[in-house]
Amino acid sequence: MEFFGHDEVKLDSSGRIKLSQSLHGDFESYSHEALVLFCLPEGALGLYPLETWEGMRTKAVSSLEDISSNIVLRRQLRRFGALSQKVTLSRQGRINIPSTFRHYANLEVGTVVLTGVEIGAEIWSPKRWQSELALIQGHLAKKSESEMILDEQIQPLD
Length: 158
What we know:
Blueprint: E1 6-11, E2 16-18, H1 21-31, E3 34-39, E4 45-49, H2 50-60, H3 71-82, E5 84-88, E6 94-96, H4 99-104, E7 110-116, E8 121-124, H5 126-154
Antiparallel strand pairs: 1-7, 2-6, 3-4, 3-5, 4-8, 7-8
């Protein structure tokens, strides 16, 4: 799959956004207009081709017979059921985001951030996106520092 890039798009008062041209093309190639909007734990919305989302859901719910005795599996089912909704991609590349999903992701009329994530896209409020980027950059900085310390332990600098 492709689904990469970053764009700021407009959310109108009806809850519609128009995907960037590249993401629109990617979704048309893989989904034939059947998409799933999914509330992510980070406070953003995932937008996936139906086939991708079904694979995610199937992996999360591995054994139906275990569901009656496993609260974690039941919560996964709730998450995939209540926090997902099929949406249709218009010919113009627009989707409608239901009000409950806009509220969940703190999306307001105006600019929202649309990012490709290899298996689909994510829709973020600008403020949450900036926080997410700061977390990613902080993690990468710590990881780089740890790798450098480990490297020095293996091969001490003179």
